[in-house]
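To illustrate the input format used throughout this study, we show a single complete record. The first block contains the structure-token representation of the backbone; no residue identities are included at this stage. The design step must infer an amino acid for every position from geometry alone.
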């Protein structure tokens, strides 16, 4: 059995990734500390790695806000940066020595927004573009250590990510992705004989439905 740490494991893409990993002989080590709490997160990870080897780190937790930048509170700005960017960078830092021992794999779940520039997405795009570029640079750093680094950019995926937003993917079958499809891509990436450094997953059509909150 191999060990994996997966953030965002309680729902959506993270939950689907945990399920498929467990079906493929991984044990998922689930962090209990909130990702915004960097001090206690560091303590928990260090304690966990004293008792377990680590073959895989999947940074999947993410938050979104899409509105005029001046309307976003300072607290929400900090929360998005902490969860979407700071926590993955911190977890990579804390896990790297363990991953070097096993020649493991880091997979960061970014977003289609990391590859483009959309209206009302400046903050979210900044965090996800930062994560994507961190991933690509980290791969270059780690090539000689044989630690693989992959960045995944999912497009609209039908999850509870949209519960607090005023839009969601259309229910049309070919206008959204499912969490299980992202999870299948993760397994294929892990099994690939080489390194997939950056991959974008998209539905065929773009259809967004407005939702009244």
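Output of the design step:
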């Amino acid at each position: 059995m191999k060990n994996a740490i997966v953030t965002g494991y309680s729902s959506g893409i993270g939950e689907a990734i945990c399920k498929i990993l467990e079906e493929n002989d991984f044990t998922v080590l689930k962090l209990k500390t909130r990702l915004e709490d960097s001090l206690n997160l560091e303590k928990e990870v260090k304690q966990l790695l004293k008792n377990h080897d680590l073959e895989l780190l999947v940074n999947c937790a993410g938050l979104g806000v899409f509105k005029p930048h001046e309307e976003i509170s300072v607290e929400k700005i900090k929360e998005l940066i902490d969860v979407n960017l700071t926590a993955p960078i911190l977890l990579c830092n804390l896990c790297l020595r363990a991953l070097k021992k096993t020649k493991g794999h880091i997979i960061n779940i970014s977003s289609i927004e990391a590859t483009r520039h959309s209206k009302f997405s400046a903050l979210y795009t900044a965090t996800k573009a930062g994560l994507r570029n961190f991933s690509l640079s980290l791969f270059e750093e780690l090539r000689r250590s044989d630690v693989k680094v992959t960045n995944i950019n999912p497009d609209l995926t039908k999850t509870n990510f949209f519960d607090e937003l005023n839009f969601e993917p259309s229910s049309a079958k070919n206008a959204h992705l499912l969490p299980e499809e992202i999870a299948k891509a993760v397994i294929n990436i892990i099994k690939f004989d080489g390194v997939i450094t950056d991959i974008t997953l998209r539905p065929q059509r773009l259809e967004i439905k407005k939702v009244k909150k």
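Structural context for interpreting the output: The longest helix spans residues 74-102. The helical segments are 12-22, 38-51, 74-102, 122-142, 179-191.
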